[in-house]
Design brief:
It is a single chain. About 25% of the residues lie in helices and about 25% in strands. The protein is an alpha/beta fold and about 500 residues long. The strands form six sheets. A ten-stranded mixed beta sheet has the order 23-22-26-20-19-16-1-21-25-24, covered by helices on one side. Strands 2-5-8-9-10-11-12-13 form an eight-stranded parallel beta barrel, surrounded by five helices. The protein has a two-stranded antiparallel sheet with strand order 3-4. Strand 6 and strand 7 form a beta hairpin. The radius of gyration is 22 Å and the shape is globular. The structure holds alpha-L-arabinofuranose. Alpha-L-arabinofuranose (AHR) binds next to loops. The site of alpha-L-arabinofuranose has 10 residues, from loops.
Amino acid sequence: MAKMVINPNRKLSRINRQIYGHFSEHLGRCIYEGIYVGENSPIKNVNGMRTDVVEALKAIKIPVLRWPGGCFADEYHWKDGIGPKEGRKKIVNTHWGGVVEDNSFGTHEFFELCRQLGCETYINGNLGSGTVQEMSEWVEYMTFEGVSPMAEQREKNGHKDPWKVDFFGVGNENWGCGGNMNPDFYANEYRRYQTYVRDYKADHHIQKICCGANVDDYEWTEGVLKTCFSHSLPFQHGFMDGLSLHYYVHPEGWETKGSATDFDKKVWYKTLNKALFMDELIRRHGAIMDQYDPEKKIGMIVDEWGTWFTCEPGTNPGFLYQQNTIRDALVAGITLNIFNKHSDRVKMANLAQIVNVLQAVILTEGDKMIKTPTYHVFDMYKYHQDAELVDSSIETETIGDEDEWKMPNLTESVSVDGDGALHITLTNLSADESYDIDAHIVDRKVSEIRGEIVSDEMHAMNTFEDPDHVRVKKFDGARITENGVSLTIPACSVLHLELR
Ligand code: AHR
C-alpha cells in the first residue's frame, strides 16, 4: 500500500494556467490543414479556422498559444503575411520540408484564431535573421493605438483596433536554428532587441521572453543571465519576464528517435525515464536563475516540450507527423505533474505542437479529426489551471526494465481550486502492475469523490477508424476512508480525482 499525504493547509504556489499552453508553428500540417483551411474550404470553418479543432481546444480550456515558431520564427518576416492574400509573398519553408509557404495565415489570422479560442497570445519574434526595426514595427503594428505608420497600415488591412500581445519571445533557439549564437552574443542582442518591444498601452505590459537553454546546457543559462544582468542594466521590471527551456523526449536518442507506436517494454521505461528528467532540468536551471533572480520574478517558460519520435512511415520527414499512444499520455501526465510541483518557477509551458506535429493533442485527415490520448490528459488536468498547488507526497517503489532505466512507479500533484475542491492527478508508470494507494488528507473530511481515468495497454491509440478507443472514462475505484481516500490505480494510467 502506497501512503500518500496531502496537506491542503499548506498552499505552495499558484499553478499558472499558462502551464497548460500550446505551440503552433508553420510546420507540416499544423497551421495549414490542421487549423487553417481557408474561408472557401468545404470543411466547416469560421473565417478559415476549422470549427472542429477550435471547439476541441476550447473544451480543454487552451490558455495561451505560441506562434509562428519554432525555427520558423527566426526566418519569418511578418510583413509577408499581411494585406490582401493574393498579394502575399510565396516563400520556401526551408526548415520544414522545403514546401511553399503562401503566407495566407499571418498576423491577422493568428489573432482571429486566438479570438475564437478565447486564449492569450504568445508571439515569437525574429532575432536570428530579422532587424531590430522589423521587430519593433511588428509590435507597433499589433499594439499601437493612435496615429502611427504601422497602426495606419493595420487599419488599412481591416483591423482598426490594436490587439493584445500577452507574451513576446525575443528569438527562438538562438543557440541553434536561430542564429548559432554563443550565450554572450545572444544576451547582448537580447538586451538591444527587447528595448524596442515597447508597451504602447500604459496598463498592459507585454511579457518578454529571453531565449533559454536546450536541455541541460547550463552554460547557456549561466552565460545569458550573466551578460543580461551585467553593466548598467540593473534588474528592471519588464526587462525580462521569462527565460525559456526546450526539452524533447527521444527514446532512442536524437539521431534514431524511435517509433511512436512500435516499442517494447524496455523502450516504454526508457521513454518515461526520460520524461522524468524534466524535474532535474527545472531544478538545475532554476538554481542558476535563483542566483540572479532570488525572488523568482522571472518565469521559467518551457515553451517546447513533448515526445519526438520517428515520423509516421510514408509521411514527409520534414512534417514531423507522429501517432500518439498511452505512452504519450503518460509522458504528458508525468510532465504536467512536474510543472505543477515547480509552479513557483515554471510560469508557462507549451506542448509541441498543437495539431498534426510531434506530440499533438489533435490529428486531422481531410475533414476528419481525432483527439489523441495526450488531449485527454489535458482535459483531465484542466482543473489545475490557476488553482493553488498544495503540499503532497507519495511513497514510491522503484520499477523499470534495466539498471539504467530505474524510476519511481508513481507521480502525483495536488491543487485546490477557487471553489475549495481538491484535485489529485496521479500517474502509474508501470507497464503491468497496479498499486493500492491510501491518501491521508490533513484536516479535511471527504464527502464526495469524482474520478476519471485514461488507461489502456501501452500501445493503445486513437485512429481515424477508431477515434474514441482511448478516452477519459469514469473511475469508480476510489473509496472514502476515515482520513481521506483509498484506491487502486491500474497499470499504464493517468488519473484525476476531484474531492469535496
Ligand atoms: O518543434 C519543432 C522544432 O523543434 C522547433 O521549430 C524548434 O524550435 C525545435 O528545435
